[in-house]
Amino acid sequence: MKQKTIVTGVIGSDTHIVGNRILTMALEKAGFKVVSLGALTPAPDFVKAAVETDADAILVSSLYGQGELDCRGFRDLCVEAGLENILLYVGGNLVVGKRSWDETHKTYADMEFDRAAPPGTRIETVLDWLRRDFEAREHGNRRAIA
After folding, report:
1. Where are the alpha helices (DSSP H) in the chain?
2. CB under 8 Å to 15, separation ≥6 — which residues?
């Protein structure tokens, strides 16, 4: 079986990097090949890296509350680059102001992210989502249920 490749990074003008580094280390320990783009990464750079590395998933991180703006049109960029089936996750403090997680989750689901993770999501949860979503794709489904 081909080793899965995952592109990670911190989108937009966000500069937090510690959590992204911890995520990268956990993904590598779990057996994934990780292409870490670091902080201050524009959306097109994620897509370009995914194309260049034949990635299976993109994990976008944002903690400064502007993720909603930075992630608009992200799936469209993927489709335009021929990555219509790539797994797309986003996580962090994704919106400004007080909004329920259900509203925030719907915002990112409407932008066609496969998964959205609120602040405090454990790495074990992300690893479980990846395992189940990759398995679901082997059976012709977009992602695992729930």
Report:
1. 18-29, 43-53, 67-71, 74-80, 101-110, 123-138
2. 39, 40, 64
Strand order in the sheet with 87-92: 33-36, 5-10, 57-62, 87-92, 115-117
**122/103 Cα distance (integer angstroms):** 21
Residues tagged active-site: 14, 16
* CA separation for the pair 3, 81 (Å, rounded): 22
For the record, the structure tokens of 19 come out as 């959590």
pTM for the full predicted model: 0.94
Residue 29's closest CA among 138, 127, 131? 127
* pLDDT tens-digit series, residues 38-54: 999 999 999 999 999 99
